[in-house]
Amino acid sequence: xxxxxxxxxxxxxxxxxxxxxxxxxxxxxxxxxxxxxxxxxxxxxxxxxxxxxxxxxxxxxxxxxxxxxxxxxxxxxxxxxxxxxxxxxxxxxxxxxxxxxxxxxxxxxxxxxx
Length: 114
Hints:
Arc Repressor Mutant, subunit A; about 60% helix; alpha+beta; about 10% strand; about 110 residues; single chain; 6 helices
């Protein structure tokens, strides 16, 4: 933590303490940066948007979004690694869905912001 000497804050001590307490720490910052970085791709955003409507298998995602199956599989692996999607197997078919409804909240908040 950097300490500044001979400088007065314009904010009050209570606000200073709140900022120091509530700004995310390193571990949370890493997780958040990883999460947002994982969503910083057009293809991944399209896949997440599709999965917010319904769980789907790779074939359905690739056909509906008109993407190569290899691309979809690769991007789903990335999304799974950052915890955005989960997979459920039914026989030989893997169905992907959002891992948590909060993902949809983040997406909707982003759309409303823009």
